[in-house]
Amino acid sequence: MKVIITQEEAVEKGIWLDVMKMFGVDDEDEVWPSEEYILTEEQARRLKLIP
Fold it and tell me: Which superkingdom heads the taxonomic lineage of this protein's source (predicted)?
């Protein structure tokens, strides 16, 4: 299973810093609120998005 989350959703859920680390995004990188990140099931569990 894959889970898709946008940058905006990650910020709202308070997990944006974790997503940034997973995908190698820096503070200096240009990121759009609608930008999507595809998480594996394991990543989504680590972020507590799914049980």
Answer: Bacteria
Residues of the chain with pLDDT under 70: none
What's the confidence (pLDDT) of residue 48? 96
| 4 closest CA partner among 38, 41, 33 | 38
Place of tokens 């974790």: 18
Nearest to 22 by CA among 50, 42, 51: 42
42 to 2, 7, 18, 28: CA distances (angstroms): 9, 19, 14, 27
User: Three-class SS of residue 45?
Assistant: helix
